[in-house]
Amino acid sequence: MNILLMLLPAIWWGLLPPIVARIGGKPANQIFGTAVGTLVVAVMMTFVYHPQLSPFTFLAAMLAGCFWVIGQVGQFISFQNIGVSTTMPTSTGFQLIGTSLVGVVIFGEWSTTMEKVLGAVGILVLILGIVLTSITDKPLIAQDQPNKKLPTIIMLLTTTLGYIVYMAIPRGLSDSGLAIFLPESIGILVAVMVYVFVTHQQRIFKQRSSWLNIAGGLVFSLGAISYIGSVQNNGVNSAFVVSQLAVVISTLLGMIWMHETKTHRELVFTVLGLLLIISGAIITTVF
C-alpha cells in the first residue's frame, strides 16, 4: 500500500501536462480551468479535514498559491511553444536546482562538507540532464521560427522562480499539507483572475476549453493529496524523489499521446537526460 501511495503523485502529476495540452486552449484557458478544479477539491477536503489556521498562515499560503500560478503559466506557454516532452524535463530540472539552493541558503541544509560536495555534484548532474533533454537537431534560433526554443527556455527558467517560492513558503510555516491546501487554492484563483484581467483575456470565461480544463485541476489536486499522504507514510525524502518520476511519465506521454516527434538522436539524449535528472534528484535529496 505504501508503495502505491508513493507512486500516485508521480502518476497524477505526470498525467497533468499531457491532459491540459490535449484538452487545448490558450494558457489562460488552461490555468483558469486548473485553478477552478483545484479550488473545488480544496473546498471538499476542507469540509472533511476542518483545518485551523492563523491569519498569518492563511495569507502566507495564499501568497504561495499566487507564486505557483507564475510557474504554471510559464509551463503552459512552454507546452505550446516547444511541447510537453521538452518542457517537463527542463522545468523539473530548474525546480530541483532552485529548491536545493533555497534549502541551503535559507533553511541551512547541507550543513556538512560531504553534504555540500554531494549537493554540488547533484546540481551539476541536474544541469547536464537539462542540457541533454534540450538538445535538438534544429538550431535553437531557426530561420523559420526565430522566437521559439531559446526564448521559451529562458522564459521557463524565469517563471520557475514562481514554483521555487511556492515550494519554499510552506517550509517556513508551522502548518502544511492539507491544512494549507484551501488558502493556496484561493491564492491560485486570485492570481489567475489578476492574470486574466491584466492581459485582457476575459473572453476565456465563455470558452469551452476553460471549463474542460477543470480536469487539470482535479488531477493536480489528486497528485497533491496523494503526495501529502506519501510524505506522512514514507518520509519526505522518499516521497519527493519518487514523485519526480512524474517527469518521465509526462515526457513519454508527450511523445506517445501528443505525437511530439523526436529524431533518434534527440530521443537518446532525452532518455539520458531523464536518467540524469532523476539521479540528480536522488543525490540532492537522499544523500
Name the features:
287 residues, mainly alpha, 77% helix, 0% strand, globular
Describe this structure in words.
The chain has 287 residues and is an all-alpha fold. Helix content is 77%, strand content 0%. The protein contains twelve helices and no strands. It has helices at 2-23, 27-49, 55-82, 84-105, 113-134, 149-168, 181-198, 208-212, 214-234, 236-243, 246-256, 264-285. Helix 1 (2-23) runs parallel beside helix 11 (246-256), helix 4 (84-105) crosses helix 6 and helix 5 packs antiparallel against helix 12 (264-285). The protein starts with a helix and ends with a helix. Residues 140-144 have low confidence and may be disordered.
**H/E element string?**
HHHHHHHHHHHH
Number of helices: 12
In terms of per-residue confidence, which ranges show pLDDT below 50 for 5 or more consecutive residues? 140-144
What structural category do the secondary elements indicate? mainly alpha
Task: Give the radius of gyration.
Answer: 18 Å
Tell me roughly what share of residues is in helical segments.
over 70%
Average predicted local confidence, pLDDT: 90
Strand composition percent = under 5%
